[in-house]
């Protein structure tokens, strides 16, 4: 049974192809913002290599996994249901719980990011620094953002997709102008913007390792769209097409602004510290362009937050459908058909985290997301063995060896990233990450006793193997 078939509420509005593309874009990237530190840590040459190479060893394997499972089991809750189908209720819960915790921390950080870019915009445009001096004003701005986009999400996935198209246009436009102006200037005075390959006194592997952990964060989130599969028109066809468009779009959205910024001749070692894209745009086109790019950063944060609410709020919804949370969170809006109570619950938590510990918790996101993604790849392989006859409109080629190879690439990167974070953060990371991971089995036992009490799941983990 799916969520839609279990409710008498009206069906929610559904996303078409370009709405899905924009939601994917904003759950993964949202713009070139955040990639600046890659250049500062790894130097221009290695940064460009990583922007081009990382999708092949990190993003594309994840996209292949998501596309196969999404078209085989196009149900609300996505990866939560996939892992439950393959590994059972406990591991399905662990998958959903770790993904929810990760999403809560990251989504709250996007609300804070909005205040950061709002501050940059006000400083550049008007010389106003109120957001830098008042924590209360910063929280009120973040809370207003949360309230507005909670309402957009209550109106439905289509409203999120339509607004994401507007935000994308507002993000792309100043970057396109920046890229064109940089190309004209570079044509008149060609400089080897790709040099040096690595920072001084840093070898190839050192520069590669430093940059890989930065760029992988900018290329994750491809599985986020899976939680809203019942809110997509014809997901069996739309998901593969949307991924085919979104992957090159995300790559170009990072690559071209980085190339343009490098051509400005600003010291690359300052990237990500005192120099970010608004400053680079100012160096290329003047203060007006820097202000415009800073404004684009605000729209980027809006798009990121808007899309992440859509994806993340469906997890308490499906938890409630499977009776791990109170039944009120599975209720859908009488007009819009959306899980409005789950959206409101998520919004309240975001508002608390913005003034709370999200910056401290952010260090754990590599492990939370890593556990979530590894479980999805395990589910991919297990389902190939357990359910070889499952209808798979999209199938990763190469049989079981093929899916195993696809899984090994990103899983290896996750292990390296976790190891690197442990070495860098030490005891703080281990304590926080261990506590959050331990919360999954504890929550499973406690919530099962409080709410489930032996009742069957609404979302069947034994889904049919045919779409007929």
Architecture, according to CATH?
Up-down Bundle
Give the name of the CATH superfamily: Amino acid/polyamine transporter I
- Domain tally: 1
Rg on CA atoms, Å:
22 Å
The CA-CA distance between the termini, in Å, is: 15 Å
Count all strands and give the number. Answer: 0
CATH top level assignment: Mainly Alpha
Task: Name the quaternary structure.
Answer: single chain
Morphology call:
globular
Keywords: Cell membrane, Membrane, Transmembrane, Transmembrane helix, Transport
GO cellular component, one term: plasma membrane
Subcellular location: Cell membrane
Protein name: Amino acid transporter
SSE topology sketch:
Blueprint: H1 17-28, H2 36-72, H3 79-87, H4 89-126, H5 130-133, H6 135-155, H7 157-188, H8 204-218, H9 235-262, H10 277-285, H11 287-312, H12 314-321, H13 340-354, H14 358-361, H15 365-386, H16 399-425, H17 427-452
Organism: Deinococcus soli
Pfam family, one: AA_permease_2
Keywords: Cell membrane, Membrane, Transmembrane, Transmembrane helix, Transport
Quick synopsis:
With 468 residues, the protein is mainly α.
Please provide a written account of the structure:
With 468 residues, the chain is an all-alpha fold. The model is unreliable at 461-468 (pLDDT under 50). It has 17 helices and no strands. Helix 4 (89-126) packs across helix 6 and helix 4 crosses helix 17. It has one domain: Amino acid/polyamine transporter I. The chain crosses the membrane at residues 15-35, 47-70, 90-114, 136-154, 166-184, 204-222, 243-266, 286-305, 338-355, 361-383, 403-423, 429-451. It is a multi-pass membrane protein. Keywords: Cell membrane, Membrane, Transmembrane, Transmembrane helix, Transport.
């Amino acid at each position: 049974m799916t969520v839609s078939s279990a409710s008498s509420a009206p069906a929610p509005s559904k996303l078409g192809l370009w709405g899905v593309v924009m939601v994917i874009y904003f759950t993964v990237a949202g713009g070139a913002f955040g990639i600046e530190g890659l250049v500062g840590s790894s130097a221009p040459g290695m940064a460009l290599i990583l922007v081009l190479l990382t999708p092949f060893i990190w993003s594309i394997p994840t996209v292949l996994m998501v596309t196969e499972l999404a078209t085989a089991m196009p149900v609300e809750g996505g990866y939560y249901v996939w892992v439950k189908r393959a590994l059972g209720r406990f591991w399905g819960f662990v998958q959903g719980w770790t993904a929810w915790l990760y999403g809560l921390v990251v989504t709250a950080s996007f609300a804070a990011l909005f205040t950061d870019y709002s501050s940059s915009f006000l400083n550049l445009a008007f010389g106003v620094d109120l957001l830098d001096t008042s924590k209360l004003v910063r929280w009120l701005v973040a809370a207003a953002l949360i309230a507005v986009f909670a309402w957009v999400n209550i109106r439905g996935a289509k409203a999120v997709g339509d607004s994401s198209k507007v935000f994308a246009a507002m993000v792309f436009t100043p970057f396109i102008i920046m890229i064109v102006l940089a190309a004209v200037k570079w044509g008149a005075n060609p400089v080897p913007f790709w040099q040096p390959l690595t920072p001084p006194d840093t070898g190839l592997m050192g520069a590669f390792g430093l940059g890989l952990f930065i760029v992988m964060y900018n290329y994750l989130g491809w599985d986020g769209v899976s939680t809203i599969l019942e809110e997509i028109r014809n997901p069996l066809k739309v998901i593969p097409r949307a991924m085919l468009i979104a992957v090159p779009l995300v790559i170009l959205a990072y690559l071209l602004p980085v190339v343009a910024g490098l051509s400005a001749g600003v010291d690359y070692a300052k990237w990500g510290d005192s120099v970010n894209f608004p400053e680079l745009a100012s160096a290329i086109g003047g203060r007006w362009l820097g202000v415009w790019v800073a404004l684009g950063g605000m729209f980027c944060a809006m798009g990121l937050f808007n899309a992440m609410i859509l994806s993340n709020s469906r997890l308490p919804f499906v938890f409630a459908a499977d009776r791990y949370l109170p039944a009120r969170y599975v209720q859908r809006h009488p007009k819009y058909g959306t899980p409005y109570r789950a959206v409101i619950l998520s919004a309240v938590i975001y508002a608390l985290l913005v003034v709370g510990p999200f910056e401290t918790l952010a260090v754990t996101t590599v492990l939370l997301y890593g556990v979530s993604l590894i479980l999805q790849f395990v589910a991919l392989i297990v389902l190939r063995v357990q359910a070889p006859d499952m209808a798979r409109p999209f199938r990763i080629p190469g049989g079981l060896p093929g899916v195993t190879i696809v899984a090994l690439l990103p899983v290896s990167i996750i292990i390296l990233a976790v190891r690197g974070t442990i070495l860098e953060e030490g005891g703080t990371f281990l304590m926080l990450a261990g506590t959050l991971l331990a919360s999954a089995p504890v929550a499973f036992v406690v919530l099962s006793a409080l709410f489930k009490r032996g009742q069957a799941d609404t979302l069947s983990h034994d889904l049919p193997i045919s779409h007929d």
